[in-house]
Amino acid sequence: MMVEAAWPQAVAPARPDRPSETTAVLALDLGASRIRVAVVARPLGGLGVSAPGPLDAASGTLLEPPNLGRAFHDLHLGDALARATGLDVVMERDTNVAALAERAFGSARGEDDFLYLTVSTGIGGAIVAGGRLFGGPDGLAGELGHVLVELDGPLCGCGARGHLEAVSSGSGIAARARERIAAGDAPGLISIAARRERSPGMPEEIDARLVAQAEEAGDPAAADIMGRARRGFAAALVGLVDVFTPHLVVIGGGLARAQGERWLAPAREAVAALAFRVVAGRTRIVAAALGDDVGLAGAVPLLALRPNSPS
Q: Which of 67, 179, 185, 211 is most buried, judging by how many CB atoms fall within 10 Å of its CB?
């Protein structure tokens, strides 16, 4: 079976007194025209939802996702979807769903103890221990992008400073580039910014992809920014490997995928040199296998976690 839902391109004005509730109704206007369902062999049994964290999976509530607006704080997404579709809804943090997908179909197939990290606009993570997602007492464990890598480091979207996401994510890289452009000490980035203003085909804002291009072209400021991001990620991974002692670390996300071994190799080298010897000797660090469809693939094993779910 397959469920494909379209997220609307525009959202009508929200009620100022109840922004979250209004956004739920408008953003999840899923009537027959916004959801296409193809059923094969048996009736549709439920809807698996991959959503940004932190969230309360039990109640289907987004709590305060740092890269979305305040209207998405305390948003009862699961209830809105259930009302709109008439289906049972199971919701999990997107990185947990990705980990389930990689375990069922991808780079962690059959592995019972591993970490999953996604490096994209933000950085997220998931912990699988003994074959089960580890969520801690309130389901919030695994926000691996918010481990501290730089005391007094840059501001993170969550409001704290020095988190891995602030240093090594796409949004963090772009923010550092804008700072260097404003300071006037990044000629390659300044040139890219000027071309962007003149060319309608360029992205509207400086992003991590453009910073990586400037690094490839030899811009020292871009190289410094990207090097800092890779070092921050490698340092975080050493700590995570020492704390969780996984057999495997799976790295996904658009930024990590685009960087490839340039991103993974420094992390492997740091773990080999600095992590506990026994753990470092057996922990594999690999690229994710499922790409952009990881959330869709993960909906299948996610639904299997429901009580009394058919096998």
A: 211
